[in-house]
Specification:
The structure holds two protein chains of two kinds.
Chain A: E1 5-10, H1 14-24, E2 32-38, H2 59-62, H3 69-72, E3 76-79, E4 83-87, E5 92-95, E6 100-102, E7 105-108, E8 112-114, E9 127-129, H4 133-144, E10 148-152, H5 156-167, E11 171-175, H6 188-200, E12 204-206, E13 211-216, E14 222-226, E15 231-234, E16 236-239, E17 243-245, H7 248-252, E18 263-265, E19 276-278, E20 283-285, H8 293-307, E21 321-325, E22 328-334, E23 344-350, E24 355-361, E25 368-374, H9 380-389, E26 422-424, E27 429-430, H10 431-439, H11 445-452, H12 462-475, H13 492-502, H14 507-514, H15 523-534, H16 542-545, H17 550-553, E28 557-558, E29 564-566, H18 577-589, E30 593-596, E31 602-607, H19 612-621, E32 634-639, H20 653-664, E33 673-678, E34 692-697, E35 700-705, E36 717-723, H21 725-742, H22 749-755, H23 759-767, H24 775-787, H25 792-797, H26 800-803, E37 821-824, E38 827-830, H27 833-838
Parallel strand pairs in A: 1-2, 1-7, 2-3, 7-19, 9-16, 10-11, 10-16, 11-12, 18-20, 32-33, 33-34
Antiparallel strand pairs in A: 4-5, 5-6, 8-17, 13-14, 14-15, 21-22, 22-25, 23-24, 24-25, 26-27, 28-29, 29-31, 30-31, 34-35, 35-36, 37-38
Chain B: E1 4-8, E2 17-22, E3 25-32, E4 37-42, E5 44-45, E6 50-51, E7 57-61, E8 64-68, E9 75-77, E10 93-99, E11 102-106
Antiparallel strand pairs in B: 1-11, 2-3, 3-4, 4-10, 5-6, 7-8, 8-9, 10-11
The chains are: A alpha/beta, B mainly beta.
Chain lengths: ~850, ~110
């Protein structure tokens, strides 16, 4: 019997967790008993997106740990317990709570702490830091009693922190010691443009300010005093002036540390003790501390490889960054300050649109050494690939940053990238790995992401991944055929646009102008749906009837035995006892099987075609209307009971749900659409699993989009926060109309979003910023659908000609003798083949 | 057996299907306009085991007139009854004709006239 060795990981932050994830994915996981200490009261979470805590995300949303991860892999985690002592001779770790573990291998992933300058008064009340969820909770508490907040530090993290203060509703200042914002990543002009854009958002920026004292304020809790004599009154002071490695434990056990801190490591991430490694922000490699997650992840992979006896080295990391700070695009690549010998600089500045771009190129103009982008990050991927792969620049390098107003493309074709080019930096996926996965059969974005993990970290590379995929598919000879079917050599989106331009109103006109043959069960319902979503004529009009799937034709849902189910609309899931009784009476009279649906309504099964109009006559008389459960259209707006009754409710979720359901009912769309509204962040309506989800907060409605349950669940993305009802409805109008216009056939909003170039940011720019100038048109399009709404069943039962089809035989009143039921749990169900032979059947009602 | 009168062409649905009862047999009738032909096939879906084919969407695939089952979307050739997805499966096809605005079916003959 072999005994397992023990591996102890100190720290369960982003890098510590990444190490564990890499380790359990490696065959050597079976060699080790794994133990980890986590000082914080919760396991690893996403610190990079910490500010989203104030725009609606919860600690759970930010978690980086899959549910059940530690149990599944047999990892012992000591949460809320800090490793406090290491005895290297005895190879033992002792914790604050008294846990003692003997280790064979030890990994430091202790991270860093925020640097607080030793200014007098730095420990006064409401002087805080920004690193953990507990820090955020302290900020939120402090913000309740204050009006003004000031961040000390105008670097990347400081500006993130400023966003957090602004989200908390404080008048926000940023105080920066250096002469410009983000002094490491920006040159003077870039920093100035960034400053202008940040100030446009209502944040006051003070640069070149050296804080010398913090004392009592007159109007606010605190007053900051600067070396130049200026003063600033503020309630909250938030220090974000850089990080310092957490190396105290390593010092204590006499590992080598750097002069300015950091645990010294070699290329295998080993410390001065060969059984101890250090990774992430606590580690000092080549006299450098890496304050980004990607290098930390690379170190984590190196340690796993080294433990496995593979030849692996950490050889430094590219510190290029691309991010969106409060909606402002910022990116920096390589040598931004043109420190390289003979470097040449090109720059482009557009004061009107707030865009600044700078290129640093080698003396021979062949290599890109660095770049700065503010206000427009679109060229980042291309520039980064030029820089990292040493690809020769075009003859005029400035073409890469000058706006191109014709059709010429100056982007770097993905063809030009070598196989070794890194596409996804979070998971270190190369172009070569992606191409192999495509060759092995991953021919969709979804399959590629699952197989290679590319674009599943920060998601920044998804557009690039898509280009690599398209290009490689074409190269490997896959024909990417996007034709709808043999009758129309167009996509659904193309057909939609053709309808708009040609004002086409019937399938016949479509076929004559743009198609061939007679159509099929693909193109007919698709075009029927497009026409209905725009013109909104009754789908059983003679020219549309033949286009509809059977469910739409009979305005009910066909079940396995050819009978139908009936679902009346119950807006927001709210129903009076009288209506409930009416529903029960109909179910009883027609002997229907009744079941509550997931969308908070009632489904009545087992209705024959000839019964449908009778059933609906009674339902309509009782005050019901069609629930459109049969259509590719808005289904339900689910709601929790909300502030009307609930002790915790923040706003009236039922009221909003009913209003929204009544607004969008009847809208035909590429696929079904589901909504939900929750009255508080407890989220009882499960809004984050819907196409459109709304959650009430103290500051207004938070809007989530493109979630999905079902076969491929997708958590919805937070789209906008703190909205009033009018703005909320405006955004949903635009969102739905844009979806109807641009989605593929039978494409749910989740897949639509995942395939959209630019993803969530692009969608926001279209809906919120109205980048395409379509906003008004999209709203009008929705208004037309709302104005022309009709209950399809009401119109149908009032029109004799439409009722003709609702009988099984055109020439007889007999019933389909194949439809037979048996009883189960006091209700009917279709008989199976065996029962038809051997049992007394309930027969046709 | 001979030609039987079933219904008026006004009872048919243009470019869609209805079901008729002919000698106890369920017959799906599809009326194609503007050509004016009527196809008659059995209404029973051998995959879904239900009488539903008259409620399928019709069209053409590679030039063959077809109906797609509303249950699991298999295509059946309206002239031969052969399933396009599984050629070992063939459903009955009946002769049909339109005579002075009346639809007539001959259950014995297979194949189509007019």
């Amino acid at each position: 019997m072999t005994t397992k060795k023990t591996l102890v990981v100190i720290g369960n932050g982003m890098v510590g967790q990444s190490f564990l994830a890499s380790l359990v994915a490696s065959p050597i996981k079976n060699d080790y008993q794994i133990v980890t200490f986590c000082e914080e009261p919760r396991a690893a979470y996403d610190r990079v997106h910490l500010s989203e805590f104030f725009s609606g995300k919860t600690a759970e949303d930010l978690s980086m740990v899959e549910p059940g991860f530690f149990e599944e892999h047999g990892i012992t985690i000591h949460i809320g317990d800090k490793a406090s002592k290491i005895y290297r001779l005895a190879k033992t770790v002792l914790s604050e709570k008294g846990v003692s573990i003997s280790y064979d291998k030890l990994v430091f992933a202790t991270g860093s702490y925020p640097f607080v300058p030793p200014v007098p008064g730095h420990d006064r009340p409401q002087c805080l830091v920004y690193r953990t969820i507990e820090d955020l909770e302290a900020m939120a508490a402090a913000a309740k009693n204050g009006k003004v907040g000031t961040v000390v530090g105008g670097g990347l993290l400081g500006l993130e922190a400023a966003k957090a203060l602004k989200d908390l509703g404080l008048k926000t200042h940023v105080v920066q010691f250096a002469p410009r914002l983000m002094e490491m990543q920006m040159d003077d002009a870039g920093g100035a443009m960034l400053r202008r854009k940040i100030e446009e958002l209502g944040i006051t920026v003070h640069t070149g300010k050296n804080t010398i004292d913090i004392t009592d304020g007159k109007h606010c809790t605190n007053k900051m005093v600067f070396a130049d004599g200026d003063e600033l009154e503020t309630d909250l002071v938030l220090f974000s002036a850089g990080i310092r490695p957490r190396d105290e434990l390593a010092r204590d056990c006499a590992l080598h540390v750097g002069a300015r801190g950091g645990i010294v490591i070699d290329n295998q991430c080993k410390t001065s003790d060969p059984d101890i490694y250090a990774i992430g922000e606590c580690a000092l490699w080549n006299d450098k501390i890496f304050g980004l997650v990607a290098p930390g992840y690379a170190m984590a992979r190196t340690v796993v490889a080294d433990l496995a006896g593979e030849n692996a080295s950490f050889t430094g990391a590219d510190m290029s960054t691309k991010l969106k700070l409060m909606g402002v695009d910022v990116a920096s690549i390589g040598d931004v300050h043109a420190k390289s010998q003979g470097a040449l600089v090109y720059s482009y500045q557009n004061g009107d649109n707030g865009i600044y771009k700078r290129l640093v190129v080698s003396q021979d103009k062949k290599q890109l050494l660095g770049a700065v982008l503010v206000g427009d990050n679109s060229g980042y991927g291309t520039l980064l690939q030029y820089c990292l792969n040493g690809i020769e620049l075009p003859e005029n390098p400035d073409a890469l940053i000058l706006p191109h107003r014709s059709d010429e493309s100056v982007g770097l074709g993905v063809d030009a990238l070598p196989a070794s080019a890194q596409i996804c930096s979070c998971y270190d996926v190369t172009k070569g790995a992606i191409c192999s996965a495509i060759e092995a059969g991953c021919t969709t974005m979804g399959a590629l992401k699952t197989e290679t993990k590319a674009a599943t970290g920060c998601g920044g590379c998804s557009a690039l991944l898509k280009s690599v995929m398209d290009c490689e598919l074409a190269r490997q000879g896959f024909e990417v055929n996007t034709d709808l079917c043999e009758h129309f050599a167009y996509t659904r989106q193309d057909l939609y646009n053709l309808m708009l331009v040609g004002e086409i109103k019937t399938f016949g006109e479509f076929l004559a102008k743009h198609g061939k043959g007679h159509g099929c069960e693909i193109c007919k319902p698709t075009i029927g749906n497009i026409l209905a979503s725009y013109w909104n004529e009754h789908i059983l009009e003679p020219e549309h009837l033949g286009l509809q799937d059977t469910n739409d034709t009979f305005l009910a849902n066909m079940q396995k035995d050819g009978t139908y189910s009936v679902v009346p609309r119950i807006t927001g899931g709210e129903i009076s006892p009288d209506m409930l009784i009416a529903l029960g009476q109909v179910g009883k009279k027609y002997k229907l099987y009744t079941k509550i649906t997931g969308g908070q309504r009632v489904d009545l099964f087992g209705a024959r075609v000839d019964q449908l109009p009778h059933i609906w006559k009674e339902l309509i008389d009782a005050g019901f209307e069609s629930g459109h459960a049969y259509g590719k259209s808005l289904r339900t707006v689910k709601s929790c009971v909300g502030s009307t009754w609930c002790r915790f409710g923040v706003d009236d979720s039922v009221g909003l749900a009913i209003e929204l359901e009544n607004r969008y009912k009847g809208l035909r769309s590429p696929h079904k659409i589901k909504f939900a509204v929750s009255g508080c962040t407890r989220e009882c309506a499960e809004a984050q699993s819907k196409d459109v989800g709304i959650i009430a907060t103290e500051n207004g409605w938070n809007l989530y989009v493109c979630g999905n349950g079902g076969m491929k669940p997708r958590h919805a993305d937070l789209f906008a926060t703190g909205l009033d009802k009018d703005t909320l409805i405006k955004y949903i109008d635009r969102f739905l109309s844009f979806y109807v216009r641009t989605a593929g056939r039978l494409q749910r909003t989740s897949v639509w979003m995942e395939n959209m170039e630019g993803g969530l940011d692009y969608l926001k720019s279209v809906i919120i910023d109205d980048k395409l100038g379509l906003g008004e048109q999209l709203e009008q399009q929705m208004q037309h659908v709302i104005d022309t709404y009709q209950c399809e069943w009401k119109t149908t039962i009032e029109d004799e000609s439409k009722l003709k089809r609702f009988r099984h035989f055109i020439n007889s009143d007999q019933q389909d003798d194949n439809v037979v039921f048996v009883e189960e749990r006091g209700q009917i169900r279709p008989a199976d083949a065996n029962e038809r032979k051997h049992f007394k059947l309930l027969g046709v009602a | 057996m001979s030609w039987q009168d079933v219904c008026s062409i006004d009872d048919l649905q243009p470019n869609s299907g209805v079901c008729a009862l002919v000698n106890g047999r369920q017959v799906a009738l599809f009326y194609l306009i503007p050509v004016g032909t009527c196809h008659a096939i059995d209404n029973y879906d051998p995959f879904g085991h239900a009488n539903v084919l008259s409620r399928g969407v019709i069209g053409d695939i590679n030039g063959q007139p077809v109906v797609a089952s509303p249950l699991y979307k298999q295509h059946f050739n309206l002239q031969t009854g052969v399933c396009l997805e599984d050629e070992t499966v063939k459903i009955p096809v009946y002769a049909s004709r339109i005579n002075q605005n009346r639809v007539e079916i001959n259950l014995q003959e297979s194949g189509n006239e007019l």
